[in-house]
Amino acid sequence: MTACMKEVVKEASKFVSACYGKPDKEEMSITRQTLWAARLGKSGKDMPSLASLPPTTEAFYKNLKRAHIQAYIWKHALDADPPDLDFI
User: Fold this and answer.
1) Does some domain include residue 18?
2) Does residue 84 sit within a domain?
């Protein structure tokens, strides 16, 4: 919870990219593009389903930020005076 969002995004991107079989990628858009090219090359003419690809970097950041804020809220739900969180 004390890590900066930049570090959280970097580590989460590496983890999710590894889940898609691309552990060396740090940006989701690069992982998405790599998977798109690989799947398009394998299938010939058929386009891969967009739902089977990871999110773009921008969408991933927004989802990760929401999840991080929610985890923070849950962690401090029973605290009488929870610490402030910068939502920006």
Assistant:
1) yes
2) no
What does the alpha-carbon distance between residue 41 and residue 26 come to, in Å, rounded to a whole number? 23
Q: For the segment 15-27, what is each residue's pLDDT rounded down to a tens digit?
A: 999 998 888 777 8
Q: Cβ distance 25 to 34 under 8 Å?
A: yes
In a domain, 88, yes or no: no
pLDDT at 59: 93
Number of structural domains found in the chain: 1
Residue in this structure with the two tokens 């005076």, named with its chain if needed: 81
First and final CA of the chain: distance in angstroms? 15
Q: Closest Cα to residue 17, out of 37, 38, 2, 32?
A: 32
In a domain, 60, yes or no: yes
For 28-56, how does the pLDDT look when each residue is reduced to its tens digit (9 = 90+)? 888 888 888 888 876 566 777 888 888 99
- Domain of 14 in residue numbering reads as 5-42+50-75
